[in-house]
C-alpha cells in the first residue's frame, strides 16, 4: 500500500498551516519530513493517519494493505505512551486484544516483535525498570505487532540522549534491513534524517510547502555516523532550512 498526499492545505482558525502539499510515500521506503518549528509536520502526519481531515486536498491510499495487517496506519510518538502497570509483553498484547486472534497467533506475534526489537529477555519487565531507549523499543515493538502498512513516527528519538539515539538509529536500520517497512518519519534532527530517509522532504516555514525533496541513494545498512556523503546531504538540508528556521523562530516568538 502506498500513500499519496494531493494538494493538501489546512488552516487552524486564521493560521494557515499547510499549503498545496503533494507527496507520495512508496511502499518499503522511509520518507522523512523536516522543516522549521510550526511548519505543519505533525499536522501532516495526523492527516496521513486519518486522525484529522485537511480543509483542501486529500490523502489517498493506493493498493491494499497486507492481508494480515491489523492496523494499516500506526503511530509511534515521542513519549512512548506505555501503560506503567503493564509489563513489556503486556503493553504489546494490549494492541492485539481487540483483534480476536487465536492464542497461538498472539503468542507468535509477541515473540516475533520482541525478538525483532531485542527485547525478549525483558518481556516481564515493567516500564519503570527500563531506560528511555528500551521504552521506545517497546513502543516500536507494539507498533510492529499490528503489522502496519505504514508506520507514522513523530520525533520518536527526540526525548532520548544522544548515545541512546545512536543505538536506536542502528536498531531501526537493522529492523528495516531485515524486513523493510514503510514509514513517514518526522524529525528536527537532520543527522537522523540522512541516516534513515530514503527521501527527505523539506517543508518551508508556515504555511508549510514542499521546498525540496532530497533522495539519499545509499543502502541504509551502509550509512554510518560521520560518513562524508551523509554529511554533505546534511549540509544540503541545512542550507535549505537555515533562513526559514531563523524566520520561523522569530515568528513563533511573535505568536
Ligand atoms: N489542533 C490545533 N489547533 C490549533 N492550532 C494547531 C493545532 N495543531 C497544530 N496547530 C498549530 O499549527 C501549526 C503547525 O503545528 P505542527 O505541530 O503541525 O507543526 P510542526 O512542524 O510539527 O512543529 P514542531 O516542529 O514545532 O513540532 C503550529 O502553529 C501549531 O500551533
From TrEMBL:
Residues 3-230 form the ABC transporter domain. It comes from the Bacteria. One of its GO terms (molecular function) is ATP hydrolysis activity. CDD domains: ABC_NrtD_SsuB_transporters (cd03293). Pfam families: ABC_tran (PF00005). Keywords: ATP-binding, Nucleotide-binding, Transport. Belongs to the ABC transporter superfamily. This is ABC transporter ATP-binding protein. It comes from Siculibacillus lacustris. The lineage of its organism: Bacteria, Pseudomonadati, Pseudomonadota, Alphaproteobacteria, Hyphomicrobiales.
Amino acid at each position: 500500500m502506498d500513500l499519496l498526499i494531493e494538494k493538501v492545505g489546512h488552516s487552524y482558525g486564521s493560521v494557515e498551516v499547510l499549503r498545496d502539499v503533494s507527496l507520495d510515500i512508496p511502499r518499503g521506503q522511509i520518507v522523512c519530513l523536516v522543516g522549521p518549528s510550526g511548519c505543519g509536520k505533525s499536522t501532516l502526519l495526523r492527516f496521513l493517519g486519518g486522525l484529522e481531515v485537511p480543509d483542501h486536498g486529500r490523502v489517498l491510499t493506493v493498493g491494499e494493505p497486507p492481508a494480515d495487517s491489523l492496523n494499516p496506519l500506526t503511530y509511534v510518538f515521542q513519549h512512548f505512551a506505555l501503560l506503567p502497570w503493564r509489563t513489556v509483553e503486556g503493553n504489546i498484547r494490549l494492541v492485539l486484544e481487540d483483534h480476536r486472534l487465536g492464542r497461538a497467533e498472539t503468542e507468535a506475534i509477541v515473540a516475533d516483535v520482541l525478538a525483532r526489537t531485542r527485547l525478549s529477555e525483558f518481556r516481564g519487565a515493567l516500564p519503570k525498570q527500563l531506560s528511555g531507549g528500551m521504552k521506545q523499543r517497546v513502543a516500536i515493538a507494539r507498533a510492529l505487532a499490528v503489522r502496519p502498512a505504514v508506520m507514522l513516527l513523530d520525533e520518536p528519538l527526540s526525548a532520548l540522549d544522544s548515545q541512546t539515539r545512536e543505538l536506536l538509529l542502528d536498531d531501526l536500520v537493522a529492523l528495516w534491513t531485515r524486513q523493510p517497512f514503510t514509514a513517514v518519519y518526522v524529525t528536527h534532527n537532520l543527522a537522523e534524517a540522512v541516516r534513515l530517509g530514503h527521501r527527505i522532504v523539506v517543508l518551508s516555514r508556515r504555511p508549510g510547502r514542499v521546498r525540496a525533496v532530497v533522495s539519499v541513494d545509499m543502502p541504509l545498512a551502509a550509512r554510518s555516523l560521520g560518513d562524508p556523503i551523509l554529511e554533505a546531504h546534511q549540509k544540503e538540508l541545512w542550507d535549505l532550512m537555515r533562513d526559514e528556521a531563523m524566520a520561523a523562530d522569530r515568528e513563533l516568538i511573535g505568536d
